[in-house]
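BUG-177 | component: ligand-complex export | severity: low

The export step for magnesium ion jobs runs without errors, but we want the raw record kept on the ticket for reference. Input record follows.
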Amino acid sequence: MAEFGKTLYNTVMEKRFYSYNDIHRTVKILADKVMASPLKPEFMIAIGGGGFIPARILRTYLDIPIFTVNIVLYEGKQTGEKGPQITQWLDKPDELLENRRVLIVDEVDDSGATVAFCKEHLSQHNPSEIGLAVLHRKNKPKKVELPQLVEHYFCGEELGDEWICYPWDALDIDNRN
Ligand code: G4P
Ligand code: MG
């Protein structure tokens, strides 16, 4: 199965729908885990687009600033290669990251590829510690095992290899599509 094909995912996988209230409750679980940990993040780096809304709700609990980056999964026209690419990055990454404690935020740990790519790029600017908070972790074979990649790993809920329907993707929230 293609790792990045949302269309293919949608045709063959069970769908699991979440409401905004479900998401908020899961963020609260996540926030409690972060606050109980020794990481004590100084700020968040939200990976757009999926990490934006979780990061904003997390800020309600953690009360730390949010910085944002955008990474898209690029599909090479010539080679057929697929991989993450940065489309927007931090303004002054050395100033921001050096010797700081950072929490990366994304909505889902699926293959791990996008988050791993982001973590590698942030690491180049020598933060003292890196944590990762995801709302959902899918228990499935991974490209990258993120809990082994970062010093602090937090997830709000674990599930199987299902397709998660986030409320922010709904065209008609009442009719779940
Ligand atoms: P990972 O590092 O977070 O595991 O992400 P991976 O590269 O495997 O994910 C590829 C894209 O597929 C990501 O979107 C991810 O959010 C999305 N995705 C994976 N599983 C699900 C799912 O169950 N439901 C939904 N709705 N999306 C899923 P992206 O390219 O980062 O797009 P976006 O963040 O702008 O939405
Ligand atoms: Mg994303």
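Assignee comment: Attached the raw record above. The chain is about 30% helix and 30% strand.
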